Structure formats: structure tokens, C-alpha cells
């Protein structure tokens, strides 16, 4: 059966198989049924922009499948990638709740399924369902945690090398490879995008990778990166 | 038994101007029961970055400095929190360690609420939960503003001969 962008669309929250793993979706049956009424299940291809920083808030985008790149514009006009959102995250949440412009720009890096809820519908829904309200508070807390982490990372790290090492190590702990002697990473981002994540230039990232390869700290096979010398990478991250 | 310090939220003259404190009477009464007043002289560390979360600290009066620290001890001040603000809220809700260190800058009057009590309170009082959502949105906005300002890193060319 043909499906948009190769995605198997989850039509109903009630029968969704991954709901149990997602904190935001773990709400009472009446709240879930009410949510079903106001959500629109949509599919987006890779490279689609869901919303732009500064745009008036149309509503929230619950990421059901795929990943989304969240970026912010620094005061000197450079793009910083704040994080890569994973399924289960609610995008555009603080803007929708506060009725203020979107804080970030959201662009898909995979084909995605997104459940969209209009602002007025969502605000009304929150007023009527206390348990959903608590879930929203939890999501916002996680985002705040992440933003503080970014401030610390951007404000306190000295060099791009340090930050790249930290990022690679963080990715290995996310994909469960961290415990291995030689963790493996599938690089989903270009050098340019990695530069935007750590706040430096594409040239610097390319140079850093070349350096890491020359020192045999990493080895690349296509888009897979193998970390050969975990200890050296850790040393770079805490330099 | 209430001590002389244990002031009821109902008697607080500053309350109507404060987002978090402007709650319907039923919620406020419930809050009065779960809060603990702790006077915090200047320089009191309310909580430390990375420590397990215990609860929230409402800054009834006075200010507190919120900072983060690198592994090597370099400190970065996030911002100064003013009276009426609720500290440790996001850590409390996500159950993660405190993201920042909070230290009072004045002789502050602080109200503490244990995490378990707070979550129960929020589940039972929807208006309070919505207030919290609004507070968190504002906190998040401030954090993003900080991210924008901190922006680009200064790159340092690695030396050719690294003999470490």
C-alpha cells in the first residue's frame, strides 16, 4: 500500500503502539479522546519547514515519527542548531501556550509524521484537561533543561574542538553505543549543520574531522563514524 | 503549630501582583498547607546545579543569583531572579537535577515546597498548573534569549605540535 513519503501514518492515538513510551501521550482516556478530536495527522518530507522563528503561533506540532532540526538565530545573525527533536517531543509548545511568536525554526531532517493542533483548540483543551496541562509543564521543563545545557555549552566551552568532541560523545550515549570499546555513529547532519550546532564555521568542522581522522581518533566509512580512541575524545571534551 | 515566621499567603500584600501567587482561594489554602517558610540570609545557597531535586523555592522577597558552572569551575551567571519568582520549577517537574545554582543576594524570604507535595497540588488545582505552564514559558523564553546572546564560539587554532 502506498503511503506518503514512505511513512506508515498512525491515524489514531487510541491504537498507537508507541504511545506508552512517550510521556506527553501518557494521559487519561477521556483526555486522549478529546485530543483525538482536535489533532490533524499530517506527513512531511525531509527538508520541510514546519514553522519559522518569529512567526505568529498557529499551534503545536506533536512529532510522532521522524526527526526535526530546531534552530535559533543568534544576535549576530548566525544560525545555531539548538537540538534535534526526537519522536515524542511537542514543537512550538511555549509559543502556542503563551500566544507569542515561535522561538525557533523547525525543519524536518527525515520524512515525518506530525500531529498538528490549532492554537485555540489546544488552549481550550488545556483549560479542560488538568492531566494534559501537567504533561505540558513537564515538556516545557525538559526544553528549559536543554536550553540551559546549551547556554552552559556555548558560554563555557573554550574551543570548537572541545564542543565537537562533547557532541560526538553525547550522540554515542543517545544511540546506546557509549559502552562499546569503539562506538559507532551514523552522521545525520552535514558539516555545515554540525557547525551550526556548536556555533562555529563549516571550515572549522571539516578541519576538526580531518584532524581527528589523522590522529586516528575516529574513522569514517561513508556516513558512519567509528570512534577508535574513546579516551582521547573524552580528553578533548574536557580540555 | 505555626512560628512567628509562618505567614499565611492570604496575609501577603504582594500577592495580587504575582503570577504564581494569584490563585483562587481554594488553591491558595491548599498551598498554605504544603509550604515551609525558610528565611535565607544573604549568600544562602538554596540549591546547587547537578544536585537531586528536592522541591521549589518561591522567592517571596529578595533576589537570587542563578549560575551554571563548567567542569573546571568557571562560573557563568544566567540571570538574577527577583521577588515573586519560583526557582527550581523545571527541575521539579521533570524530576531531573537542578540546572543551575541559586544563591541569595539579599536577606531573602523564601518559601519551600517539597516536590511530591507540589506535583499533587498541581494535579488537584488546574489553575495553579496553568500558572506554572505560563511561568515555564517565560523561563524558556529567557533561556532562549540567553542562547541567542551567547551565540558564536571563539575558535582557537590548534597548535601543530601538541605534546600533551
Structure report:
The complex is a heterodimer of chains A (239) and B (164). With 239 residues, chain A is α+β, with helices and mostly antiparallel strands. Chain A folds into 2 domains: 4-156, Sandwich (Jelly Rolls); 160-237, Orthogonal Bundle (Arc Repressor Mutant, subunit A). Chain A has helices at 29-38, 93-98, 119-128, 130-156, 160-174, 191-198, 202-214, 230-237; strands at residues 39-44, 49-51, 59-65, 68-73, 79-85, 90-91, 105-108, 112-118, 184-186, 218-221, 224-227. Helix content of chain A is 41%, strand content 22%. Chain A is globular, with a radius of gyration of 19 Å. Chain B is an alpha+beta fold and 164 residues long. Chain B has a single domain (9-141), classed as Sandwich (Jelly Rolls), CATH 2.60.120. Helix content of chain B is 31%, strand content 26%. Chain B has helices spanning 25-34, 89-94, 115-124, 126-150, and strands at residues 35-40, 45-47, 55-61, 64-69, 75-81, 86-87, 101-104, 108-114. In chain B, strand 4 and strand 5 (75-81) form a beta hairpin. Chain B is globular and about 45 Å long. The termini of chain B are far apart. Mean pLDDT of chain B is 84; it is low at 1-5 and 153-164. Classes of the chains: A alpha+beta (239), B alpha+beta (164). Chains A and B meet through helix 2, helix 4 and helix 5 of A and helix 2, helix 3 and helix 4 of B.
Q: What's the CATH H-level homologous superfamily of chain B?
A: Jelly Rolls
Give a quick account of the main beta sheet of chain A: strands, pairing sense, barrel closure.
4 strands, antiparallel
In oligomeric terms, what are we looking at? heterodimer
Q: Give the fraction of residues assigned to helices of chain B.
A: 25-40%
Note the run of SSEs of chain B as H and E.
Answer: HEEEEEEHEEHH
Global morphology of chain B? globular
Give the uncertain stretches of chain B in residue-range form. 1-5, 153-164
Low-confidence stretches of chain A: none
Query: Average pLDDT of chain B, to the nearest integer?
Result: 84
Number of distinct beta strands of chain B:
8
Computed over alpha carbons, the radius of gyration of chain B is 19 Å
Determine the structural class of chain B based on helices, strands and strand pairing: alpha+beta
Top CATH class of chain B: Mainly Beta
**What overall geometry of chain A do the principal axes of the alpha carbons give?**
globular
Strand content of chain B: 25-35%
- Looking at this structure, what is the CATH superfamily of the largest domain in chain A? Jelly Rolls
Sheet with the most strands: spatial strand order of chain B: 1-8-3-6
Number of helices of chain A: 8
CA-CA gap between termini of chain B:
63 Å
Helicity of chain A, in percent?
Answer: 40-55%
Amino acid at each position: 500500500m502506498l503511503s506518503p513519503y514512505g511513512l506508515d501514518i498512525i491515524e489514531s492515538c487510541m491504537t498507537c503502539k508507541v504511545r506508552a513510551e512517550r510521556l506527553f501521550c501518557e494521559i487519561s482516556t477521556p483526555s486522549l479522546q478529546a485530543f483525538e478530536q482536535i489533532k490533524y495527522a499530517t506527513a512531511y518530507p525531509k527538508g520541510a519547514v514546519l514553522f519559522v522563528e518569529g512567526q505568529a503561533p498557529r499551534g503545536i506540532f506533536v512529532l510522532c515519527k521522524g526527526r526535526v532540526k530546531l534552530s535559533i538565530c543568534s544576535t549576530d545573525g548566525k544560525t545555531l542548531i539548538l537540538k534535534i527533536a526526537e519522536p515524542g517531543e511537542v514543537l512550538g509548545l511555549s509559543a502556542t501556550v503563551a500566544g507569542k511568536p515561535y522561538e525557533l525554526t523547525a525543519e524536518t531532517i527525515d520524512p515525518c509524521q506530525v500531529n498538528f493542533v490549532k492554537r485555540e483548540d489546544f488552549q481550550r483543551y488545556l483549560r479542560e484537561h488538568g492531566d494534559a496541562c501537567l504533561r505540558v509543564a513537564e515538556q516545557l521543563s525538559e526544553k528549559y533543561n536543554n536550553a540551559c545545557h546549551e547556554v552552559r555549552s556555548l558560554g563555557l566551552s573554550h574551543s570548537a574542538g572541545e564542543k565537537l568532541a562533547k557532541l560526538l560523545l553525547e550522540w554515542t550515549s543517545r544511540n546506546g553505543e557509549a559502552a562499546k570499546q569503539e562506538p559507532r555513529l551514523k552522521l545525520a547532519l552535514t558539516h555545515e549543520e554540525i557547525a551550526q550546532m556548536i556555533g562555529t564555521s563549516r571550515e572549522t568542522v571539516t578541519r576538526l574531522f580531518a584532524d581527528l581522522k589523522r590522529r586516528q581518533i575516529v574513522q569514517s566509512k561513508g556516513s558512519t563514524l567509528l570512534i577508535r580512541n574513546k579516551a582521547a575524545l573524552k580528553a578533548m571534551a574536557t580540555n | 503549630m505555626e512560628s512567628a515566621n509562618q505567614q499565611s499567603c492570604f496575609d501577603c500584600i504582594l500577592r495580587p501582583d504575582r503570577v504564581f501567587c494569584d490563585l483562587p482561594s481554594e488553591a491558595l489554602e491548599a498551598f498554605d498547607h504544603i509550604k515551609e517558610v525558610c528565611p535565607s540570609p544573604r549568600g544562602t545557597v538554596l540549591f546547587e546545579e547537578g544536585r537531586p531535586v528536592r522541591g521549589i523555592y518561591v522567592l517571596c522577597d529578595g533576589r537570587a543569583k542563578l549560575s551554571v558552572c563548567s567542569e573546571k569551575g568557571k562560573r557563568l551567571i544566567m540571570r538574577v531572579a527577583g521577588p515573586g519568582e519560583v526557582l527550581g520549577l523545571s527541575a521539579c517537574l521533570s524530576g531531573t537535577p537542578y540546572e543551575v545554582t541559586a544563591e541569595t543576594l539579599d536577606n531573602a524570604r523564601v518559601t519551600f515546597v517539597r516536590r511530591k507535595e507540589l506535583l499533587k497540588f498541581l494535579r488537584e488545582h488546574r489553575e495553579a498548573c496553568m500558572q506554572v505552564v505560563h511561568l515555564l514559558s517565560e523561563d524558556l523564553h529567557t533561556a532562549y534569549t540567553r542562547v541567542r546572546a551567547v551565540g558564536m564560539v571563539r575558535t582557537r587554532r590548534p597548535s601543530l605540535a601538541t605534546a600533551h
